[in-house]
Amino acid sequence: MTQHAELDIGLIVAGHGRHYVVMTPEGREVICQPRGKKSQVVVGDRVRWQVTDSRGDAGVIEAMEPRRNLLYRQDEWKTKSFAANLDRLLVLVAAEPVFSESQLSRALIAAEEARIEVLILLNKVDLEPAASLARERLAPYRAMGYEVLEVALKARSEAGLKSADADPLRSHRDAALAMLTPRLAKGSTLVLGPSGTGKSTLVNLLVPQAQAATAEISTALNSGRHTTTHTRWYWLDGGREGALIDSPGFQEFGIQHIQRPDLAHWMPDLRAHLGHCRFANCSHTHEPDCGVLAALERGEIAANRYRIYQELGAELDRRG
Ligand SMILES: Nc1nc2c(ncn2[C@@H]2O[C@H](COP(=O)(O)OP(=O)(O)OP(=O)(O)O)[C@@H](O)[C@H]2O)c(=O)[nH]1
Ligand SMILES: [Zn+2]
């Protein structure tokens, strides 16, 4: 275990195939390949590595340091890691296109299970009436304890602005920056968001040098345009205290790694009513004297959320 302790430590900031970009504590980027055939390192991992060329810009990853957490999704066939050692998950949704509550809930469940704090960001609040509808759909999430922030990263009108402003686009953008900068200043934040929500806009706002950095990495890894579809770590400040991790979009957020009996526990609104069921192994679907069903009846659990619980529960029950 200690045999690699004397090697340099580095941070995985990007990866493409079997090539990784390792950042040294001084901020230098080195292209590394893992030693073994199978590599499980992901962006956010800290690794022990050593140089393999005389100029010191290529190396080999010898070992991975223990992880604090790992956010991943899992369907029937494969596991897909997002990133490791996360302090925060920022789930970006928008007034338009209408977001899938099921996908949102899946991401939140995976984050709960991995013990990662969540921030929900609603973009395009300049678009009414879509914004009001989205706000309504997010109300249960606020009520169950998630922080929900609203922004208009690229507003087309001055709707939603408190005072008339000569440049609504700029004032919305400045307001978003002022709101987000302090919240993301420390630790690593992974950004997840379905296509079209404004994820590129958000990353470019918070990391103005993102496009240049991505191009540079693509050249280094010789992967051309492909790297833009990969996960990438960006420092938010010169002191390297805060980081934003951009990740590619995905179709389905599989949560096959969640244990069926724990499902309700990872849903804070359901969790609040656990411990009051007649049966210790209650599935909260059909049992008499179920605390969750009683709470649903009393309107203390949103109908949509309970429907999502049923769907996800059935999905986990089908697992072979
Ligand atoms: N009205 C409005 N439009 C916005 C806002 N933010 C972003 N958009 C628009 O939404 C569209 C998607 O923004 P992008 O930043 O490209 O979104 P993305 O999530 O990276 O999308 P993909 O590239 O498809 O993954 C663009 O046409 C933006 O101009 C906003 O606050 N209000
Ligand atoms: Zn129950």
From TrEMBL:
InterPro entries: G_CP_dom, NA-bd_OB-fold, P-loop_NTPase, Ribosome_biogen_GTPase_RsgA, RsgA_GTPase_dom, RsgA_N. Belongs to the TRAFAC class YlqF/YawG GTPase family. RsgA subfamily. Residues 73-253 form the CP-type G domain. PANTHER family: SMALL RIBOSOMAL SUBUNIT BIOGENESIS GTPASE RSGA (PTHR32120), SMALL RIBOSOMAL SUBUNIT BIOGENESIS GTPASE RSGA 1, MITOCHONDRIAL-RELATED (PTHR32120:SF11). Its EC number is 3.6.1.-. Monomer. Associates with 30S ribosomal subunit, binds 16S rRNA. It comes from Leptothrix cholodnii (strain ATCC 51168 / LMG 8142 / SP-6) (Leptothrix discophora (strain SP-6)). This is Small ribosomal subunit biogenesis GTPase RsgA. GO terms for molecular function: GTP binding; GTPase activity; metal ion binding; rRNA binding. Its cofactor is Zn(2+).
